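Review box. Two proteins, two foldings.
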Amino acid sequence: MSAEIIPVTMVGDGEDSRPAADRLVAGDPEQRAWNAFTDATGQFHAGHWSSTRGVWRVRYTESELCVLLRGRVELVSESGARATFGPGDAFVVPAGYTGTWAVREDCTKIYAIFVPHT
């Protein structure tokens, strides 16, 4: 079997979502994901994600590499550590991270997610 390069592009309409009501802290963010790749194991995913402004609680069971293309986001961990990112910034959210994710300016990111076996 031959492996081929997969472009990480925003093809089609994407998949719309919103944070679950029990996690929403502020706003009414509209989110959309364009998953460009999922490996055969279902553990690795890559694509684009966008969101309008809002704040919600997160609890990561996966590890995620984020590269912000536009907008501004702020993550505040359960311990109070604050991190703000803008266009061109890259960061990793490790499995086990809990806190809040705030979109301060409508944003778009490239993501690469690894979901460990459970």
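Next protein.
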Amino acid sequence: MQTIEWQDFEKVEIRVGRVVGAEPFKEARVPAYVLRVDFGEAIGVKKSSARITGHYRPEDLIGRLVVGVVNFPRKQIGPIMSECLVTGFHDGEGKVVLCVPDREVPPGAKLL
């Protein structure tokens, strides 16, 4: 495993956001959703392509808190421009399980 310096970690803006929109990403090569995530007043709503179809339905994602990286460069994924990375872990079957806070925290809160 490669090690990083603390200063490298401090550059990554990992924030809590609330999913305010979720719909199937019909044009995606691998099944995915287009999410709109509200990261609070200072950051706003960002769009993301998320390959989380194995455990989640769009209607179940609305209102959920997620953890995302908000300072990666924007990335064109098919017809959408992804503006953040919603984080998760692969389970034993290779399906993605969202990384989420275990208590309510305000959108925009930064990982410490």
